[in-house]
Input
Amino acid sequence: MVPVLTAASAVSLAACASYAVPEAGVMLNVRRLSPGERTAVPDGAYVYVHVVRGEVRLGDEELTAGDAVRVTNAEALDAVVVTPVEVLLLLQSHFVI
Output
């Protein structure tokens, strides 16, 4: 059974947390950040980045609430916060997401 992240459980999450989901073969990284802060996007063959609330600059792209991007062969990539980010989900996998 794969754990489900609900709105109720998201309230109690730390500002930065990582969760292994071995059944799915992925690592879920959750971030809550303030403007100007940056966080490293996990290096990996396949990474999925989803902005739940706020705005984030990822390379030359600006992502807003609801935006998502798949990154192939992610390496030394940072996400820079433009407006407060409620939750930034970074899903790292060894297979195509």
Notes: Residues 55 and 64 are 4 Å apart (CA to CA). The chain has a mean pLDDT of 82.
